[in-house]
Amino acid sequence: MNILGFPRIGEKRELKKALESFWSKKTSEEELLKVAKSLRTLHWSYQKNFPFVVVNDFSLYDNMLDLSYMLGAIPKRFANLNGLELYFAMARGNGSNVACEMTKWFNTNYHFVVPELSKNDIYQVNAEKIANEYNEAKSLGYNPKISLIGLFTYLGLAKTNDDSDKEYIFPKLKAAYLELIKKLTTLGEEITIEFHEPIFVKGQNPFFSKIKEVYNAIAELGIRVIVSTYFEASNEATKILVETDIEGLGLDFIYGENNLTSLKLIADAGKKLYAGLIDGRNIWVANLDSKLNILDRISIIVPKDLIHISTSCSLLHVPFSKDSETKLDSEILSWLSFAKEKIGELELLESLFRHGITESNKDLYKQNQEVNATRKNSNKIHDIKVQQRTQSLQVTTRTKSFKERIKIQRQELGYPNLATTTIGSFPQTVELRTLRQKYKKGEIDTNTYENGIKDYIKDCIAFQEEVGLDVLVHGEPERNDMVEYFGEQMKGFVFSQNGWVQSYGSRCVKPPIIYGDTSRPNAMTVRWSSFAQSLSKKIVKGMLTGPVTILNWSFVRDDLPRHEVCKQLSLCIADEISDLQNAGIKIIQVDEAAFKEGYPLRKENIKEYETWALECFKISSSVAKPSTQIHTHMCYSEFNDIMKTIEAMDADVISIETARSGNELLKIFKQVGYANEVGPGVYDIHSPRIPSADEMYKQIKLLLEVLPKEQLWINPDCGLKTRKWEEVKPSLNNMINAVKKVRSEI
Questions:
Q1: pLDDT value, residue 672
Q2: Which of 186, 376, 554, 587 is found 20 to 30 A from 173 (Cα to Cα)?
Q3: What is the value of pTM for the model shown?
Q4: In percent, how much of the chain has pLDDT > 70?
């Protein structure tokens, strides 16, 4: 039995609270590390029946950042720092030094801190973190297995900050990486390391020729090596890895069914197979009969004693436990399996695979069969009206071209060049969260709650008018989360109480659970958008979350193809756009922050996803009148390979996160001749630092080197809900002053 990692944020978000308390200087480093140690101890206790417990899956912020820190791959701007001050500065910024970039971990909603490498780097390797955790586990009587990001994944996801060629950097980085491994050999005999190499599922890259030499060199150090890939199939890399001296390979059989074609190679090489059969990315109870069927297919080719049952990837991507879920419908709750429960599923599947049905496992096995049967036949899942509407759906486009629409919109809306706005949300203060919590608990009445929301919106509109923004937002005080808020008003969704999943650092999300056919019984946003618009003569944007993002940021039912679920969602958003514009809302933002992260990792699978994801966005937005301006927003993404799809989305304005990457990302829009309007983020909202007006002035000037003023909007990188007012107010004021200075010059 094997897992690739366990959620680290804590069942009650203990790590989040400890981090934020430490960052605000309310608690000491010692107190933070004490919380971290207690969490690791708890996580290992759940793995007590496993051959190994996982060490180094735990992180105070991010595992990629951990590896950069351990290798000494430190950007020069942080060279005068050390310890946790250095570590957190790389993640969050420090003074005038901007943080390292973040982007999505493959096609998940988890963000990692992007390594910055240079040909002039001088690596100083430090294995103290791993050594401490390894010895911690040993002292508790456990047999540790070290989890480590593989060299190829680390290098493949890194950026070079001085135009260095990665092939030039590779030898020196490889030497530092091997030095780190060598330091780990001093921890004891027969050290086992599981190297995470999800980059291999993307197919061949220039460094495939180095795989054999690197992993043979690691094995020569006396390490028992497991190389695990996940999220899709990795047949090309498997062909190479079976010829190395590694002990075993971990393959994902949930999202990489084609890995079955590599079984003979593994068997012929006599390698151990860590078969990823328990889903590390979704929360449905495993159908153990289905898993046993796959294991039967595998064991025909690979000897049974070489097969180890595993999770498909780290359990980082699912919530901690169902133990505290007391409000969910009991039937639906029985269909769910979080991280702690998945460990139980692994143990049961292992028992059934090795010993068949026995006295000790028969009751749990029967229970699993009954739960899966109940879910399949439940009348809570199916809505005939929704199914009929989806089946009769025709994909349409806007009634006029962008060139025609933008003339109408410019005349109707009257905004200036370099128009200023924000992405949508404003700070979710303690008072605001307390107000919502009291209302949900029934401690205050509806009138008190709504007056509190109205007061926040009034203050938010007043501040935006005072600071001089051109297009306003209502601040989203009524929304707990940009997906959860909508899911709560649709049929086919349920919500956990404590189903928190780490997004980055201390930022957690509680993904909605789509269990059945979805529909929108009533308007979801019209009331608050209309109220906000009544407070100002300036335009106030209506704010929606797009269907693809709702899908990609939810735990999605696995009994219906994802594209069918997304079509149902797109109709809900189309109905909302129609209601908003009929209520007089002239600009509507349909956020598709997670559009890119849903992309398959293998090129041959991308076209199918792009086709239906694009169709779903257009189903939603095509109901907009020519005079209704549709905005969309996309989070950290590499857009090089999806620009044609972005063009085909045909949003009137797209805002993107670029503050940590200068104007490099924007250059792609120029290269393809992108004609629609663009709002590149001019400051990073994921960092608490307040950028100066001069800093943003320079950023805007860089943007103008790429696109003309008529095409550009000026806005922060993303929504401001996670920031504090004392950070937001001066930052936006500086942004407006920077825009005024640029406008005066042009």
A1: 86
A2: 186
A3: 0.89
A4: 99
42-51 residue pLDDT tens: 999 999 999 9
Q: Name the phi and psi angles at 420, rounded to 5.
A: -105, 140
| pLDDT number for residue 637 | 58
Q: What is the pLDDT of residue 663?
A: 65
Helix 63-71 and helix 83-92: axis angle, to 10°? Answer: 130
Please report which confidence band the pLDDT of residue 661 belongs to, taking 50, 70 and 90 as the band edges.
Answer: low
Distance CA 556, CA 543 (A): 23
Contact in structure between 633 and 654 (CB atoms under 8 Å): yes
Do the Cβ atoms of 427 and 721 come closer than 8 Å? yes
Q: Which two tokens stand for residue 652?
A: 């009137």
**315-341 pLDDT per residue, tens:** 999 999 999 999 999 999 999 999 999
C-alpha separations of 395 from 96, 337, 598, 633, 692 in Å: 48, 36, 20, 22, 46
User: How far from chain centre, in Å, is Cα 675?
Assistant: 29
Give all domains of the chain, ordered by start, each with its CATH number: 247-380 (no CATH), 402-745 (3.20.20.210)
Instruction: Give the pairing of strands 111-113 and 102-104.
Output: antiparallel
Where are any strands of DSSP class E within 31-138?
Answer: 53-55, 102-104, 111-113, 116-117
pLDDT at 73: 96
Average pLDDT, integer, range 32-58? 98
Tell me: pLDDT of 55 over 80. Answer: yes
Cα–Cα distances (Å) from 673 to 116, 126, 594, 670, in that order, read 29, 47, 24, 5
Q: In Å, how far from its chain's centre is CA 31?
A: 28
Average pLDDT, stretch 254-268?
A: 97
Query: Do residues 252 and 274 touch, judged by C-beta distance below 8 A?
Result: no
The residue among 616, 87, 237 whose CA lies nearest residue 390 is 616
Q: Read off the tokens for 473.
A: 């937002």
* DSSP-derived 3-state class of residue 585: coil
Residue pLDDT, tens place only, 554-574: 999 999 999 999 999 999 999
> How deeply is 33 buried, as exposed, middle or buried, from its count of CB atoms within 10 A (0-12, 13-18, 19+)?
middle
Task: Give which of 186, 185, 247, 241 is closest to 213, Cα–Cα.
Answer: 241
What pLDDT is stored for residue 686 in this prediction? Answer: 80
Q: Is the dihedral of CA 196, 226, 291, 320 positive or negative?
A: negative
Amino acid sitting at position 419: A
Average pLDDT of every residue of the chain: 94
pLDDT attached to residue 481: 84
* Of 43, 196, 317, 686, catalytic: 686
Read off the tokens for 137: 């586990």
One DSSP character per residue, 214-230 reads HHHHHHHTT-EEEEE--
Contacts of range 353-362, beta carbons closer than 8 Å, 24 or more positions apart: 353/292, 353/295, 353/304, 353/307, 353/309, 354/304
Mean of the pLDDT values across residues 526-552?
A: 97
Helix (H, G, I), strand (E, B) or coil at 39: helix
Q: Strands (DSSP E) along 474-606, which ranges? A: 491-494, 501-504, 507-509, 513-519, 542-545, 555-556, 587-591
Q: Is 196 a catalytic residue?
A: no
